[in-house]
Design goal:
The structure holds two protein chains of two kinds.
Chain A lengths: L1 H13 L10 E3 L2 E7 L2 E8 L1 E7 L2 H11 L3 E3 L5 E4 L1 H6 L1 H10 L8 E5 L7 H10 L9 H9 L4 E7 L2 E9 L2 E6 H11 L5 E3 L2 E11 L2 E10 L7 H13 L2 E8 L3 H7 L1
Parallel strand pairs in A: 1-5, 2-6, 6-7, 7-8, 13-14
Antiparallel strand pairs in A: 2-3, 3-4, 8-9, 9-10, 11-12, 12-13
Chain B lengths: L1 H7 L6 E5 L4 E6 L5 H15 L7 E4 L4 H6 L2 E6 L3 E6 L28 H9 L7 E8 L5 E8 L5 H12 L9 H8 L11 E3 L2 H9 L3 E5 L5 E4 L3 H5 L9 H30 L7 H11 L6 H21 L5 H18 L5 H14 L5 H21 L1 H17 L1 E2 L2 E2 L9 H8 L4
Antiparallel strand pairs in B: 1-2, 2-4, 3-5, 4-5, 6-7, 7-9, 8-10, 9-10, 11-12
Helix pairs in contact in B: 9-13, 9-14, 11-12, 11-13, 14-15
The chains are: A alpha/beta, B alpha+beta.
Chain lengths: ~260, ~425
């Protein structure tokens, strides 16, 4: 009898905590965060787009939860879209909030955009995951690591539902690049850029810095025969972007002879 | 003398008394004795030679008359003072059929019948060794059922043999009509736990168990032999596995272990994930689940229990109803469960799939007692998962493991080949290498 009582106590007093039927849930697939006139303005992709405002993020989230009839479920959130204003001035608050909130997982994507009417989370997620030659998966957990290590944070910028460049925050300096410059910056930053520049496919880069000169060597592959001096073009572009003298060495692995003949 | 015997049976109309000549009287039960044999071995020899020529004739006293009469003997009374008993038993048993409840693709096709002599013969045909010991007993005040305890002297554990003999000797007020009665009596201290005796109708399985050092009990009038002590793995892997190639067979064994986990935990896991841990389900699948559950008025746990009960009803009606009408039930079941229940909005399609998979996985295990125990655990897992989520499943899993480890089968650990580790048994039943 005591044993049965014990089992009943365990089940009835501790049971059913956090019980939710799935048809009472609403999946929040994406969130857009903007800051205007001292207020946080949020848009949620929860079956339909729902807006809410608040003095701070918690307030805005609470307002949103009060306006919808079902329980919001954030574990499946795919994208968090932030405005430029937020990225430049309030990024710390955003990162801290999502770091501390247990309802969120840290595998959603971060993207910067100013003109979001409807939050199309699935579409944005597909664009980010399928077009990785611009930005390599801006996952929140990666950005979090960079943020905690005081490294630069680079996020894709979206305009009119297309990725049009990137925005970089290094300590307090913010730089914005168009899509071509983003690719060049990737050459400078990444050891495995895997990008296409003009008629070559660059899949490995190595950067050495000596005094004010950058020595960049690239492993590349010729994609198409063209009567242009790729070396000079790329060198000029990199010098303009990085404001430094660049000495470039492109190693064409395949069909290299064709290129050399032209040169 | 004749009147005395007649009075013993209250002038039973089945009891036939015949005078053959001035010296000889015969008494027998018409329902138990063969008239042809009586004519051939008793009447004819007495009339011709004034003698009995039945092969199995015994000189008995009056106290033994009842015992011999009820066992199909004819009692011959000579000059109203001497008694003889001759065996002229009618052949009441059916022929040897193929096994119904334990089918095998490429094993022997014979199975036990209701005759204990025939069953003993089927075993002795397979084990031709002097070490095969047979202990004969009879139990029951009214049924007086013969039972045979078989074991191989060299291999069987004498402690268990003595314990069983002792248990059977101490039987009071038990009428054994089938081996199931005896199995329940021998497991009287094991009311709530997994079974420790296998009931088998295959002579090859029983012989195999004898060679493994197990003890067999044959019960007259029952086509099922008791195999003991039996362990957890014995219920998962049938002996007919040995007729297959080891490597492929190990794969099938692996599937069976997976089936065990699926049939126990799968509905509970579904309930726990959709009610507590929705983040573990991929987004698109969760969206599908939400769509499917729209319009279902009941909580998912109620839905699951409802479906399980409907399946249990189907199973029970299938096993009870005459097989001639069997197709009606399956068509009705398929219609109700597959189509109408979903359209009526009583259950979601995913719940039907979940419960059906669990039910199909349980069909791998053919022992009814074992299956019933699994069924109880399935409900325990389900209720616990509905209350405590994945944590609840883990709690019941712990409870089950503790229960299995503390359970013993006639003094031996129920988890035997694993704990205590027995490499020989392990390689024979859990993971074969030859």
């Amino acid at each position: 009898m005591k044993k049965i009582l014990l089992v009943l106590i365990i089940l009835l007093l501790c049971g059913c905590y956090n019980y939710t039927e799935i048809n009472n849930l609403v999946l929040v697939n994406g969130i857009f965060v903007d800051y205007q006139d001292g207020l946080y303005k949020l848009k949620f992709d929860a079956d339909e787009t729902v807006e809410s405002t608040g003095l701070n993020l918690s307030d805005a989230f609470r307002n949103f939860e009060e306006t919808i009839s079902k329980k919001p479920f954030y574990a499946h959130t795919k994208v968090l879209i932030i405005s430029k204003e937020i990225f430049i001035n309030h990024l710390n608050g955003i990162i801290e909030y999502f770091l501390r909130n247990n309802d969120f997982r840290n595998n959603f994507y971060l993207i910067v955009s100013d003109d979001i009417n409807d939050v199309k989370s699935d579409y944005i997620k597909d664009i980010i995951t399928n077009n990785n030659d611009v930005i390599t998966s801006p996952l929140f957990k990666k950005i979090l690591t960079n943020y905690l290590d005081n490294k630069e944070i680079i996020l894709p910028v979206m305009t009119d539902n297309y990725i049009t460049g990137s925005i970089i925050k290094d300590k307090d300096n913010v730089k914005e690049f168009n899509i071509n410059d983003t690719r060049l910056y990737k050459i400078y930053k990444n050891t495995k850029p895997n990008i296409i520049y003009q008629n070559i496919n660059i899949y490995h880069s190595k950067v050495k810095k000596y005094k004010d000169t950058l020595y960049i060597s690239l492993d590349a592959e010729l994609r198409e025969k063209k009567d242009i001096n790729i070396n000079k073009l790329l060198k000029d572009d990199l010098e303009r972007l990085l404001n430094k003298k660049v000495i470039l060495n492109i190693d064409i692995n395949r069909n290299g002879q064709l290129l050399n003949e032209k040169e | 003398m004749i009147n005395k015997i007649k009075n013993l049976f209250n002038n039973n109309p089945d009891l036939i008394c015949k005078k053959i000549n001035s010296n000889y009287f015969i008494i027998y039960f018409e329902s138990l004795c063969s008239p042809d044999k009586i004519n051939e071995y008793i009447t004819k020899p007495i009339l011709i030679n004034n003698n009995i020529s039945a092969p199995h004739t015994l000189d008995i006293n009056f106290n033994e008359v009842v015992n011999y009469l009820t066992n199909g003997f004819v009692i011959v009374i000579y000059k109203n003072n001497k008694l003889y008993a001759s065996e002229v038993k009618k052949d009441l048993s059916r022929g040897i059929n193929t096994p119904d409840s334990e089918p095998s693709v490429n094993g022997p096709k014979d199975s036990f019948t209701e005759s204990i002599e025939l069953n003993l013969g089927l075993i002795k045909r397979r084990i031709k060794h002097k070490d095969l010991k047979i202990i004969n007993k009879s139990i029951g005040k009214y049924t007086n059922t013969f039972i045979d305890i078989l074991y191989l002297d060299e291999l069987a554990d004498k402690k268990i043999v003595n314990k069983i003999i002792n248990d059977i000797d101490n039987i009071r007020e038990l009428e054994v009509l089938d081996s199931g009665n005896l199995s329940n009596y021998l497991q009287k201290n094991n009311k709530y736990n997994f079974p420790t005796i296998i009931l088998s109708e295959r002579p090859d399985e029983v012989s195999n168990s004898l060679v493994d050092g197990k003890i067999i009990i044959l019960v007259d009038n029952s086509p099922y032999a008791l195999v003991l002590p039996s362990f957890f793995v014995d219920y998962i892997n049938p002996i007919t596995d040995k007729y297959l190639k080891p490597f492929q067979n190990n794969f099938i064994k692996l599937i069976r272990y997976i089936c065990l986990i699926i049939t126990l935990v799968e509905p509970a896991y579904y309930i726990a994930t959709i009610n507590y841990n929705q983040e573990t389900i991929p987004t698109s699948l969760l969206n599908n689940f939400i769509e499917q559950r729209k319009g279902v008025p009941f909580p998912s746990i109620f839905e699951a229990i409802l479906m399980l009960i409907i399946y249990e009803l189907l199973r029970e009606s299938d096993s009870r109803f005459p097989s001639k009408y069997g197709s009606t039930i399956s068509i009705l079941g398929a219609l109700i469960l597959g189509e109408a229940a979903v359209k009526a909005g009583i259950v979601s399609p995913i719940m039907i799939i979940t419960i059906a998979i669990s039910y199909i996985a349980s069909l791998v295990f053919n022992d009814p007692d074992f299956n019933n125990e699994i069924r109880i655990y399935r409900f325990l897992f389900l209720i616990s998962a509905a209350m405590l989520g994945l944590y609840g499943i883990f709690l019941i899993f712990l409870f089950m493991i503790i229960n299995l480890c503390s359970h013993s089968s006639f003094g031996k650990s129920y988890t035997t080949p694993l704990s205590p580790f027995n490499i020989k048994y392990f390689k024979k039943y859990i993971w074969r290498n030859k």
